[in-house]
Amino acid sequence: MANNEENRGLKSLFDWFANRRKSGSTNPGPQEREIADGLWHKCPKCGVLTYTKDLRANQMVCMDCGHHNRVDSDERIRQLIDANTWQPMDEHLRPTDPLGFRDRKAYCDRIRDYQEKTGLIDGVKTGLGQIGGLPIALGVMDFRFMGGSMGSVVGEKLTRLIEEATQRRYPVVIICTSGGARMQEGMLSLMQMAKISAALDRHREARLLYIPVLTNPTTGGVTASFAMLGDLIIAEPKATIGFAGRRVIEQTLREKLPEDFQTAEDLLKHGFVDDIVPRTQLKQTLTQLINLHQPPAISTNHNMAFLKKTMTLSSTAAE
User: Fold this and answer.
1) Closest CA to 212 of 138, 303, 278
2) Rg, the chain, Cα only
3) Which residues pair with 172 in a beta bridge?
């Protein structure tokens, strides 16, 4: 009788410990506070937590280590273009599936999924606006849409942007971020490289300024064409810039590549880019460069007034 009561007591004690293990530790420590989603941002480089509002105010650049977080096309436009001056172009252009391409998913279904996910029609936004009060034609690629790959719509929009800028005699700035040509469109995608390059050549012949800004990453057919055809080529710090990937090159050469290979700093050292500009200084830098390349007689109202005054004095002296 006594043994049965002892066994029942021992069994109850085991059950109690088992239930405690299921519910948690017997000596729970202080519970971590839940952080509201999106309120804080952890830097992928240094791990520092930053208040998201402060990070956005610093243009998504980590204030501790200077890491440049990827930003979308809308945010880029807000960072660069003066308020209430943005005029989007060719928003009606939509991608199609001319080859009926299918891999793990039909290309038309893949496009539809990315459009619903990102709210974009394709991988670039183009338009006219002002930067520091100066007119500009701006194209901004968006890596969220199929890795910023260059399909027919991306090529057509950039070509139309450049041609409009040439007609208006505006400088062109293109923010590049891309995995390269879009394989789902085959040769049609590759032809965009030649089409954009030809438009840029006509822009150059008109003695007009073109500045590509290479951000992380800029690779493939974009690097092999318009990303490297600028009068001045600017890159963001630590951006990956190249054509083929590191692994492909290492397997081809059968050599181990340096750690800084295909970084903006390595390309600057070898003369492939002209300057590395932090994102927080990009608008100011572009404004200065564009202002320096403005025709002196039409760059500002001050110059126009000075020109009229000079003409008046000349006519008076002639009398």
Assistant:
1) 138
2) 28
3) 137, 210
Region of 59 (left: φ > 0; alpha: ψ -120 to 50; beta: rest) is left
pTM summary value: 0.81
Measure the CA–CA gap between 36 and 42, rounded to whole angstroms.
Answer: 13
> Does residue 26 lie within any of the structural domains?
no
Report how far residue 115's alpha carbon sits from residue 109's, in angstroms, rounded to the nearest whole number: 10
Report the C-alpha gap between 105 and 308 in whole angstroms. Answer: 64
**pLDDT per residue over 190-242, tens digit each?**
999 999 999 999 999 999 999 999 999 999 999 999 999 999 999 999 999 99
- Residue 247 scores a pLDDT above 80: yes
d(CA 203, CA 139): 15
Phi, psi of 70 (to 5 degrees): -70, 135
Could you tell me the pLDDT band of residue 3, with boundaries at 50, 70 and 90?
A: low
Has residue 15 been placed in a domain? no
- Could you tell me the two tokens for 20? 């405690």
Residue 22, both tokens: 């299921």
Say if residues 70 and 216 touch (Cβ distance below 8 Å): yes
Which residue stretches of the chain are H helix? 2-23, 52-57, 73-80, 107-118, 152-168, 186-205, 220-223, 246-253, 264-269, 282-292, 301-318
For tokens 């007591």, what's the residue?
9
Domain of 61 in residue numbering reads as 38-69
Indicate whether 124 and 183 sit together in one domain: yes
Calpha distance 49→117 (Å, rounded)? 27
Q: What is the CA angle 39-44-48, rounded to 5?
A: 60
Do residues 45 and 118 share a domain? Answer: no
How would you label 236-263 residue by residue, b for 16+ Cβ within 10 Å and e otherwise?
A: bbebbbbbebeeeeeeeeeeeeeeeebb
Q: Is 285 a member of any domain?
A: yes
